[in-house]
Amino acid sequence: MAPLQPSEVRLSAWRHPCLILGTVTGACLAGIAVAWLLVANRAPSLAQFAFERNVIAGAAIGTLILLQFFLFLGSPRRIFLSGVIAWTILALAYDVLEILFGRLGSRLGAFHLFMLGAIVFGVLAVLDWVALLLLSARRSPAIATRRSRRSMFHIETKLPRRLWQTFVLGIRFV
């Protein structure tokens, strides 16, 4: 197989699944946020359905978050990367909406919204990573090996051994 040319390498970087899914999901999240805000502020006749509107918009955003999570299940790095890309697009759209709706930024700023999404996707990625660790530990159980007593307590440190044992391990020497 021939090596990729520089233009082909750049093109293949744009075809990365995290970038594609993150961009599409971010555009969908931005669309939901814009529609949510326009219905809330420009349709006063729908004010009586505010709770239902908020539940529907929240469920749509939650569905998109879970879609990314389940599509990249088993790859915490991809979950986090695609989620941060999507949430960045949402935060940029929110920043533009702050210009159009002046008091929107007083409730939650665009940076705070971005950090909220990054933390959510970070927690999802960590949960996926821990689940992968637990599943791999279950598949191949640890085999107990016997080590010599000296190797069990051998600690690499720059402190003298007695000083290390006195302060860290709490052993007192008379």
Strand content: under 5%
Radius of gyration: 26 Å
Q: Ranges with pLDDT <50 over ≥5 residues?
A: none
Order of helices and strands: HHHHHHHH
Structural class from helices and strands?
mainly alpha
Largest sheet: none
Average pLDDT score: 82
Q: How many β-strand stretches?
A: 0
How many structural domains does the protein architecture include? 1
Q: Helicity level, as a percent range?
A: over 70%
The backbone outline, from C-alpha atoms, is elongated
End-to-end Cα distance, whole Å, is 71 Å
Helix count equals 8
Describe this structure in words.
- With 174 residues, this protein is mainly α.
- The protein has one domain.
- Helix content is 73%, strand content 0%.
- Helix 2 (17-42) runs antiparallel to helix 3 (50-71), helix 2 (17-42) packs parallel to helix 4 (76-100) and helix 4 runs antiparallel to helix 6 (110-139).
- The radius of gyration is 26 Å and the shape is elongated.
